[in-house]
Design brief:
The complex is a heterodimer of chains A (about 500) and B (about 400). Chain A has about 500 residues and is of the alpha/beta class. In chain A, about 45% of the residues lie in helices and about 15% in strands. Chain A has helices spanning about 1-5, 10-20, 25-35, 55-80, 85-130, 145-160, 175-180, 200-210, 225, 230-235, 240-245, 255-265, 280-285, 340-355, 360-365, 395-410, 430-440, 455-465, 475-485; strands at about 135-140, 165, 190-195, 215, 250, 295-300, 305, 305-315, 320-325, 330-335, 375-380, 385-390, 415-420, 445-450, 470-475, 495. In chain A, strands 2-3-1-4-5-6-7-8-9-10 form a ten-stranded mixed sheet, sandwiched between helices. Chain A has a six-stranded mixed sheet with strand order 11-12-16-13-14-15, with helices on both faces. In chain A, strand 13, helix 17 and strand 14 (about 445-450) form a beta-alpha-beta unit. In chain A, helix 14 packs antiparallel against helix 15 (about 360-365) and helix 16 runs parallel beside helix 17 (about 430-440). Chain A is globular and about 95 Å long. Chain B is of the alpha+beta class and about 400 residues long. In chain B, helix 1 links the parallel strand 1 and strand 2 (about 35-45). In chain B, helix 1 packs across helix 13. The longest helix of chain B has 21 residues, at about 355-375. The chains are: A alpha/beta (about 500), B alpha+beta (about 400). The interface between A and B is medium-sized, with 15 and 23 residues.
Amino acid sequence: MKNFLTRYSLNYVRSLVYMLQASEYHVGDFLDWFWRTRDFLHVEERKTLVKTPKAVVFLCFGYTTLVVLYVCALWLLSTATAVWSYLVFFFAIVGVPFVLTYILAVFTVAVRFMQWPVERSIVASAKKKLKEHKGLKIAIAGSYGKTSMREILKTVLGRSKKVSAPPGSHNTPLGISSFVNGLQGDEEVLIFELGEYYPGDIRKLCDFVEPDRGVITGVNEAHLEKFKSIEQTQKTIFELANYLKGKTLYVNGENILAKNYATALTPPILKEVPDRAEDLNPSARRLATPFTKGRINFYTRSGSGKWKVENATTNLQGTTFTLVSGEQTISAHSHLLGLHQVGPLVAAADIASTLGLTPTQIERGISETKPFAHRLEPKTDAHGVTTLDDSYNGNPDGVRAVIDFLASLHGSRRFYVTPGLVEMGPKKEEVHTEIGRELARAGIEKVVLLRNSVTPFIEKGLQEERYAGEIIWFAKALEAFSALSNLTVQGDVVLLQNDWPDQYA
Amino acid sequence: MKTIAVIFGGRSAEHDVSIITAHIPIIESLTAMGGFDIWPVYITKEGDWYSDKAMNDMAFFKQSDYEAILKKQKKVRLSFDNGLEVIWPGILDKKVKIDVVFPAMHGTYGEDGSLQGVLRMAKVPFVGCDMASSAVAMDKAFTKQVLFAEGVPVVPFVWFTREDFVSKDGILKEKIEKLRYPLFVKPVHLGSSIGITKVTGKSRHPGESRDPELENAIEVAFHYDDKVLVEEGVENLIEVTLPIIGNDVLTLASVERPLNKTEFFDFKDKYLSGGKGSGVNSEYSEVPAKIDEALIKEVQKLGKKTYRALGCSGIARVDFLIESTTKKVFVNEVNTLPGSLYVHNWKKSGVSGVELVRRLVVLAEERFAQQQALTHTFSSDILSKVGGPKAY
């Protein structure tokens, strides 16, 4: 009852607008959230409403509509003559928040319709500017790991080339347009993340960006609730492969879904791709053409392109390995943590060498790569407790990689803190139970879980593997964080895995 | 679920420090541990007692008007009816029975045995040192006297009361004359280095027995206390401290060296320069202290001996003065409720805040059980004989 009444608080409109903003004005997501939420007073837990001009318009519209609705209800009351009209008044008052929500949804659609021509002209002008730009354009697509790949490429290539990439998660046409408008024109390499929310998104972005190279970081269950099936996700992400006719595409060979899909596209001779496409004999090159006309370069912790990886090791200080290609060697040390980082680093090294960078330049570039904010970023406090902030990693492959990394750390007591993953759709149980099993197999000493609809599956997986460590439960993330400083001692490693955005809480 | 009362604040110079200790790490750790119904019991600087679960959050005390908020609440009363009960008086009293108490008060009334005496009377288990050891440790002169008698090395000292200082001026001066400068003048009951002055002897005029610097220092000390200690300073000084927990079996934390900026560890260094959110005294110290292994062993040995000589239980911290050239170790004082339980040190010694608090609660219950097993009464017919016919 108390929760029901939160719909009648003054803050209700703000909560609705915040949720519209958090779900990027997608009406479906917004309405899903509306019917899932009970308490409308406490929705801005992790972030707060950013008062953009659009949000202010929505706030004004929301509050005006609210007033109008109540005035209408009162008018009903003033004209009431019979008992039933009082009943109508009562239901009108009770129904105001629900009616308001749907009016806001319709308003959102209307605004999008009005924005469309404006957006189209902004994008068209940016596209023209980009087409004339001489820089090499690299596009990155994938369910996860795009930002890490972008940062690795930026750092490794940036050592010797002028590189630019849209900041943050500017991966929609409008975001990319504002980036393009700010370009100086003398950039040698431009790197774009292609965001995928619905089928056709990647194709549209490719038409816009017209990339010369592509990287597919992997396909998994992230955004499965939107794509409905993993096949649909694969198809959408590989729209990049379709576009890149005759141009090189790098594919994460450690991701089974991406690897299988790419292999099916590629003639058998290219499956292992040991050499450059240009080196293939004419018949092989002909075989390589049916789909991409170019070549697919898989990248893994064993190598990519012409580079083979040797002696890869990892610890809390970073990852070290040697790259060998004929007479050339690169002694690489990156501050990135985990062997799963080797693949993307080698892909970057290979792209760098095709752009003419020397092994020394590549070595220096790799040495400058370091963890990005909230992506397996280590911080050691004054008490000697190391926290690995991996709160932006919310996908099953990333989680697996991180558990592998934790498993490789010896001599430290390890805490794994997670609220589970979002948007796993029908795979929810399977994905989380598997995380539980992996944690148990890795021998993680303490698993800290936040109570919600998915963490019981992690517990189930832990039990299935006869987990010998301790499971510690908390109701809220903040409670867990404040408790952690009292649960840890010097030398402990605390991994913070994934943070749920408010619209999923 | 056990009901635990954390008592903090109080009429003490270390009132605010106590609020920090109560929350970081005690209430935070109890919360993290689960299984406890935690009642914060706060004593104002005026001595009024309040209890409200809102005070479990440190943020309550960060409000500038928290004292005004409290004044609107009912003060609580205590009942000692075979156990401790916290009572909010009203037409129908609200009562909460307390299973165990965690005193988190520093200094007077909280750390000097007063609160411990009340809790003994109430027949409730409580964390930390008992009444007698708290009272002795709170008095720096008593501590030195006990330790000296037990053969634990302490620096030469002289103690006196305000009355002595007036009436036995000559004798005292003579005694102090025998001490080697620099001297430290300390109020015997105060913690946190309050009222302590270092006397260098530079203001003494040759041939004159009067030392204005010393007199000022004693004046300052008497401003805070009615009993004062004058002791020899240690040359080539290294200060270290050792937190200890246990009743019969002792667990030692790491030997810690405060890296004080000023000449000695004063209040500001101790409490005001600490790191954010980590309780008091977490920075400006070296854990473990980088000193000779032999010195570490000596400190650990003397630490245990001191803890036992004073009859400590639960937790205490022993402070040492080391003459670094001669490697001579002296025990300086004992603190029966170290600020924030010295959790920063315990964490570096492999004991988390939760583990520390858990063990302290268990130790409290064990000591209580042992005390209850003792016989405190016996039957006699002495009363019936009072006023009766005298036997010839």
